Amino acid sequence: MSPWLPILMAVPVLGAVVVALLPKGSDKLAKQVTLLVSLVVMVLTLVMAVQFSPRGDRFQFVAEYNWIPSFGVKFGVGVDGVALVLIALSVVLVPIVVLASWNDADGVKTADGTVIAPKRSVKTYFSLLLVLETMMIGVFAATDIFLFYIFFEAMLIPMYFMIGSYGGAQRSYAAVKFLLYSLFGGLLMLVAVIGLYFAAGKGTFMFPELVGAIQDPATQKWLFAGFFIAFAIKAPLVPVHTWLPDAAAQAPAGAAVLLVGVLDKVGTFGMLRFCLELFPEAAKAFTMPIVVLAVISIIYGAIVAIGQTDMKRLIAYTSISHFGFIVMGVFAMSQVAQSGAALYMVNHGFATGALFLVAGFLISRRGSPYIADYGGVQKVAPVLAGFFLVAGLAGLSLPGLSSFVSEFMVMVGTYSSQAFGSGGLAVAAIVSAVAVILAAVYILWMVQRALNGPTAESVKGFKDLNVREVVVLAPLVALIIGFGFFPKPLLDVITPSVQHTLTNVDVKNPAIAEKGAGE
Amino acid sequence: MDPVKITDYVGTGVIGVSWLMIALPLLGAAILLVLGRITNKWGHLLGVAMSLASFVVAVLGFVELLGLSEDARRQAVHLYEFIPGMVDMGLLIDPLSLSFALLITGVGSLIHIYSIGYMSHDPDRRRFFAYLNLFVAAMLLLVLSDNYVGLFIGWEGVGLASYLLIGFWQFKPSAAVAAKKAFIVNRVGDFGLLVGMFIIWTSFGTLAFGDLQGKVGEASSGTLTAIGLLLLLGACGKSAQLPLQSWLLDAMEGPTPVSALIHAATMVTAGVYLVVRSGAFFEASSTASLVVTIVGVATLLAGAIIGCAKDDIKKGLAGSTMSQIGYMMLGAGLGPAGYAFAIAHLIAHGFFKADMFLGAGSVMHAMNDEVDMRKYGGLRKLMPITFATFMVGYLAIIGFPFLSGFYTKDGIMETAMEHGQWMGWLAVLGAGITGFYMSRMIFMTFFGEKRWDKDAHPHESPSVMTVPLILLSLGSIGLGYYLISDNRFMKFLAPAVGLPERLPEFHLFSTTTVGLSSLALVALGAGFAWYKYGKSEVPVLAPRGSFLTVFARRDLYGDALNESLFMRPGQWLTRIAVFFDNRGVDGLVNGLAAAIGGTSGRMRRLQTGFARTYALSILFGAALLAGALLLVGNI
Predict the structure, then answer these.
(1) Residue B10: inside a domain
(2) Which residues are in the NADH:quinone oxidoreductase/Mrp antiporter transmembrane domain (chain A) (predicted)?
(3) How many beta-carbon pairs below 8 A join chains A and B?
(4) Do B36 and A383 touch (CB under 8 A)?
(5) Burial level of B219, CB count in 10 A (0-12/13-18/19+)?
(6) Cystine design at A242: which of A447, B149, B586, B587 (Cβ 3.0–4.6 Å)?
């Protein structure tokens, strides 16, 4: 029994209680406490992460406590490589988001006094953020499927309030849409979780014990469908994606980062671990339709992104395209593709996080999310424009930046996957590569309209980024460039974990082991 | 002779630290960008220093390489594990990569120095040097990488630098649009390169040049042809070859030193490098190499024709660049017999074209940034150094006897003639057209009457600009003879690209059909240019021109074609998709929900009753998803 994960989960929620109980009028203290707590969690996580041994047991830092003994529900936690890097992603993003949202609940005004968001409770916002952090750690750490389900659903609550009370003009519309979509997915998953419990007949929800427990192909397929649809809504895949642009556009930039950067990854994480390993036969049977859906998401998301007029919606649609890549990588059933997909989950968090935050900083200066309301920002705010460009280039997966490595691995891994006869997957990889061109269009066209050209009248008074904003963005850019050239530390942790998954799915690993056996 | 085996470098010489070539300019760029305004005062000096330092490393590496025996002249320097199990980062030091490295850092340094003067009035000069350093670093990674992934990182890195520099004056909408266009068109090519890499990895299990050696024969001919054509698509994007040529003329929006360095001497030749470096694939597929020569011939003619009609001096030179790269591409498609001529022409072109671009910059500097040659005229007396150096570049490019272009271009044309009469004669025809449009440029700019705007006060440029011009023109004079005589360059390159079975004979003055007929055509072209633009007066306003002139002025309708084939349908597709996404996926489902719920009146107001709407719309979406699974997966 390792105390690491329970401690990591306890610290933020205790911090949240402290922040909530602070006396009235201590907004500044609330922010400082939140930042401190999130930094402590980050440091603790990194200390834990360096003790993880990639070639050791699959699940490490394991802890189990009985919770509802009559149903065999346990509070079971433990991490494999993929879970570890996603937890690391979450806890690195939280302090950045805290600092980025420093003034978001204070009532945001532009220089000319236009109120973008009225003043709301600062303490509530930051304690919600900490509660969310606990849940993000919990959902990736849970090894008990029932516990996973609880976190999967409970995460919605803080996010619902962060969008619904702290968001933009259409916030309640967006929040309810988000909640309903997610609840529906959750409901399907609950049915599937219960079904799994009874079909397996093992009296436990512990994931390691349930692997291989369902043998009947028909049962596998039904349960797979329940899990998959829940995860596809979360990720989200076309056609169940329309909640994301609304939620991301209405959420405050910081919450959007966590929503798209972390919460959505629960969907792709769930596919990789639960859909594949618990129901391997079903996963193989469904591979082609799912890869087709993923490719549709990649291309469709990119095309719709090109046509957006609202920056935050545009970023949301680019994410739908990128989630398509992740899903394609997961279901391509090759180690290169799956490692790439898991790496993509992390890299996308940093890249999209940076893009949402810098767009948020831009929007906070003008009060409008519309690209057309800007122009020539580079002249007045070159530092902001520079960060915007770098984040954008990460969004179009420029080689040398982290997203390229993962996108390349997903595409190469999919193309070379021999799992189902290479034909279909090769075509999928080629079609998905068209997104490389589309990504340049959606990012650079936005850059051209918002940052280049003659300086718009409304933009002339803009101040460049302040120190806080630079401190928010600089670490993200450093991570994007650093992992762009040195992805090895992440891949070394991810790959053994993916090998476990592939072993459980019983797919012959085509790429690395046999070094590409020819077409 | 086949290329020699790539071996791991075990020595302790400069080759072991050849990564410094990339790291130094990269460091320069990082310092200038991160420290920002603090470095404004000395930023340009740091930029020049880093580029020169990189040149010194390249020279030392070159000396060390020459000291090795011929079969040891391909050294792989391992750097680190990049993607474990898939790609290791490493550099390949061989005659081919070092030839490029010397060109990039040598000509690059001269252009850095020139830019000190050219950009001296620009408030953002420091940022300019940061981007130039970034470019040099990326270009060196492109040519030095020992695997396709590293090459691709450099490939897109130079694309980024090109994007930043074309759009350097991004406040001009035309510059911003041109920058974006260049990047996007290049990405079309990158698609090819990417898919090519998928196939290489799948077929051979490696993306490293060393591991690919000797393995190429294992794949089927269809696979090899596919790889070749996809790599060629990438090369067409980067090197502005048909059908991906349209971005290069717009790229002239960038400051002129950029046009000289990136869009003439180095980056645009990366496609030729790619084809030569991937020679094994092309040699194994006659279809792929045939297509390379077709692309080369088509582009050498198209670029020359475009060059004939441009009044903008930079666009004229850009058309010429397209055309000259067409020659290189043609050479690259001819196998080991053509490689050395292609690369020698590439290096010679790097000198004479950079020389002429910088000369054009010097003229613009003197003429209030005027680029319209119809407003030049008679500048030879006021700008003697610029004139003399430009003349050298001009004579070199048209293939005037004994100058650089004479030997390198002739080599390509002779080799082409041996491979096929049609390509040989078309290449000779291209030489004639080159004689015309380059002479036209000379007559319009330096000879004839003054047609200047009233406020123009032409003057010679400062020595920080003229000294690089002089050095570049020296290269334009003697380099061709040096490289080609005794097959010197062919033998030097041999360890990297192999030798043809029969070495060509060298003549100081070739009297073959190709040699004589191309000289005759060039003389004819130049004479015609003299008749039209030297003897007669040049109108300040361009005449309407024949159908052919308009065709050439409009870049052979390349943009119009792209617009009607891709842009407009793309815009419609985007609009339809957005509409569908808002109304279709969301709205149609809402409407359906409304119909079922019988509350259509309320549905229009989204704030009321949307809980039920969405409950239904999710159900609908999920049903679609489940349906898809059921249909295709046969539960």
Answers:
(1) no
(2) 142-419
(3) 211
(4) yes
(5) buried
(6) B586
CA–CA gap between residue B392 and residue B369 (Å, rounded): 23
What ipTM was assigned to the predicted interfaces of this complex?
0.91
How far apart (Å, rounded) are the C-alpha atoms in residues B270 and B142? 8
| Residues A495, A55: Cα–Cα separation, whole Å | 10
* Crossing angle between the packed helical segments B384-398 and B421-446, to the nearest 10 degrees: 170
Q: Distance, in angstroms, between B102 CA and closest chain A CA?
A: 24
Is residue B247 within 8 Å of residue B182, measured between CB atoms? yes
Q: Cβ of A516 and B204 within 8 Å?
A: yes
CA distance B282 to B225: 8
Yes or no, beta carbons of B83 and A177 under 8 Å apart: no
**CB–CB of A240 and B622 under 8 A?**
yes
Q: How many alpha carbons lie under 13 Å from residue A261 in its C-beta half-sphere? A: 31
Q: Does the distance separating the beta carbons of B198 and A416 come in below 8 Å?
A: yes
- On whether residue B442 sits in a domain, the answer given is no
What are the tokens at A258?
A: 């966590």
Say whether the peptide bond before residue A239 is cis (omega within 30 degrees of 0).
yes
Angle, helices B286-309 vs B221-238, to 10°: value is 20
Stretch 142-161 of chain B: residues touching chain A, C-beta under 8 Å: 149, 152-153, 155-157, 160
pLDDT band for B599, please (50, 70, 90 cuts): very low
* Range in A89-98, B132-141, B500-509 the model is least confident about: B500-509
Q: B327 and B409 in contact (C-beta within 8 Å)?
A: yes
- Residues from chain B that touch A517, judged by Cβ atoms under 8 A, are 205
Inter-chain CB proximity A437 and B578 less than 8 Å: no
With beta carbons under 8 A apart, name residues in chain A contacting B174: none
Contact across the interface for B156 and A398, Cβ inside 8 Å: yes
Cβ within 8 Å of residue B631, ≥6 positions away: A289
Residues of A in contact with B19 (CB under 8 A): none
What confidence category does residue B617 fall into, taking pLDDT thresholds of 50, 70 and 90?
low
- Tell the burial category of A482 from Cβ atoms under 10 Å away from its Cβ (0-12, 13-18, 19+): middle
Q: How far apart are the first and last CA of chain B?
A: 60
Q: What angle do CA B166, B168, B171 make, to 5 degrees?
A: 110
Decide if B614 and A176 are in contact by the 8 Å CB cutoff.
yes
User: Which residue out of A437, A464, A467, A495 would a mutagenesis test of the B interface target, given it has the greatest number of B Cβ atoms within 10 Å?
Assistant: A437
Q: How many structural domains are present in chain B?
A: 1
How far CA B499 is from CA of A101, A357, A418, B488, B492, in Å, comes to 64, 56, 38, 12, 10
What does DSSP say about strands B87-93 and B75-83: parallel, antiparallel, or unpaired? antiparallel
Range(s) of the domain holding residue B611: 561-633
To the nearest 10 degrees (0 to 180), the angle between helices B610-633 and A280-306 is: 130
So what's the pLDDT on residue B620?
64
Q: What is the pLDDT of residue B272?
A: 94
Cβ contact A289–B223 (<8 Å): no
pLDDT at A376: 87
Nearest chain B residue to A414, by CA: B198
pLDDT, greater one: A315 or B579: A315
More confident residue, B622 or B511: B511
Q: Mean pLDDT score of chain B, rounded to an integer?
A: 86
Low-confidence residues of chain A, pLDDT below 70?
Answer: 108-118, 419-422, 507-519
Joined tokens for residue A256: 């959007």
pLDDT at B613: 57
